[in-house]
């Protein structure tokens, strides 16, 4: 297989949690990977080494997705990486990077609201806009949403609202990019027992039992439950799936 035939995917926030599992599943499927990380260089390099151990190319690029003024320099690094690998462009983009802030509507600080907005919606919007200049026709975009746009749990109004905006944005991406045969879909995880939710779970140890009891498959989700869904959407098997929201929650709150 030529280097051009091997698909190349960018996964934001690929140094840990869901992003790491997405990157590993994509590498297993035969993709070369560019991952972004916010600040933990060591973790990012570990993921790169694990991908390379599978026989795939990988590179970690630092990016704070909330700082859109940095996107021009990031694009230079991304294009240089693709050129180093003999690639004409990127095939898939996975917008995964994110944070979680828990606060009731009456107690949401404006700074926290702005941080969620800048990372989960503004960052996704403008990173996608920039990366589209480097994407090959016929590829795809996967945006990560949340089960909290379908069901409501107190304390997640701001976070879920940003993800709701991303869900609308994804439909418009699918519509406007159809002429380039670029697909756009959503993966909406349910509650996942990983570092992203560690603070909430540790603060209330009973939450795991509660979630398991409200999930049809009888357990809390793991990061490994999500990577394969993303890999499917970035494959020929998922080529006819477009503008869809796929919830991977094990059947929460049915």
List the topology elements.
Elements: E1 8-11, H1 17-28, E2 32-37, H2 41-53, E3 58-62, H3 71-84, E4 90-95, H4 110-131, E5 135-144, H5 157-176, E6 183-189, H6 198-203, H7 207-213, H8 224-233, E7 245-248
Parallel strand pairs: 1-2, 1-4, 2-3, 4-5, 5-6, 6-7
Helix pairs in contact: 1-8, 4-5
Question: What characteristics describe this protein?
Answer:
Rossmann fold, alpha/beta, 254 residues, 8 helices, single chain
General description of the model:
- The protein is an alpha/beta fold and 254 residues long.
- It has a single domain (8-245), classed as Rossmann fold, CATH 3.40.50.
- The chain has helices spanning 17-28, 41-53, 71-84, 110-131, 157-176, 198-203, 207-213, 224-233; strands at residues 8-11, 32-37, 58-62, 90-95, 135-144, 183-189, 245-248.
- It has a 7-stranded parallel β-sheet, sandwiched between helices.
- Strand 1 (8-11), helix 1 and strand 2 form a beta-alpha-beta unit.
- The radius of gyration is 18 Å and the shape is globular.
Can you tell me the number of structural domains?
Answer: 1
Shape by Cα distribution:
globular
Q: Report the sheet with the most strands, covering strand number, pairing sense and barrel closure.
A: 7 strands, parallel
CATH superfamily: NAD(P)-binding Rossmann-like Domain
* Secondary structure tally, helices: 8
Main sheet: strand order: 3-2-1-4-5-6-7
Radius of gyration: 18 Å
The end-to-end span amounts to 44 Å
**CATH topology, anyone?**
Rossmann fold
Mean pLDDT: 95
Give the strand content: 15-25%
Structural class by SSE content: alpha/beta
H and E string: EHEHEHEHEHEHHHE
- Oligomeric state of the chains? single chain
The CATH first-level class comes to Alpha Beta
- Measured as a percent range, the helix fraction is 40-55%
* CATH architecture type: 3-Layer(aba) Sandwich
Low-confidence stretches: none
Q: Strand tally, please?
A: 7
């Amino acid at each position: 297989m030529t280097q051009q035939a091997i698909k190349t995917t960018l996964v934001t926030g690929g140094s840990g949690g869901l992003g790491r599992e997405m990157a590993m599943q994509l590498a297993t499927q035969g993709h070369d990977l560019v991952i972004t990380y916010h600040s933990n260089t060591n973790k990012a390099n570990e993921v790169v080494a694990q991908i390379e151990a599978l026989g795939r190319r990988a590179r970690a690029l630092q990016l704070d997705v909330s700082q859109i003024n940095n996107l021009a320099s990031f694009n230079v690094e991304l294009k240089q990486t693709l050129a180093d690998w003999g690639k004409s462009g990127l095939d898939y983009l996975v917008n995964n990077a994110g944070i979680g802030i828990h606060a009731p509507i009456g107690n949401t600080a404006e700074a926290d609201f702005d941080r969620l907005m800048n990372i989960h919606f503004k960052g996704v919007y403008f990173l996608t806009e920039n990366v589209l200049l480097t994407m090959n026709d016929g590829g795809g975009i996967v945006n990560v949403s949340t089960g909290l746009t379908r069901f409501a749990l107190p304390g997640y109004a701001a976070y879920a609202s940003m993800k709701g905006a991303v869900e609308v944005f994804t439909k418009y991406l699918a519509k406007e990019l159809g002429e380039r045969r670029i697909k756009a879909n959503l993966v909406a995880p349910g509650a996942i027992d990983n570092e992203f939710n560690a603070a909430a779970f540790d603060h209330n140890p009973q939450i795991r039992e509660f979630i398991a009891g409200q999930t049809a498959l009888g357990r809390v989700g793991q990061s490994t439950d999500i990577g394969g869904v993303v890999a499917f959407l970035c494959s020929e098997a998922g080529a006819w799936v477009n503008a869809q929201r796929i919830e991977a929650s094990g059947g929460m709150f049915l």
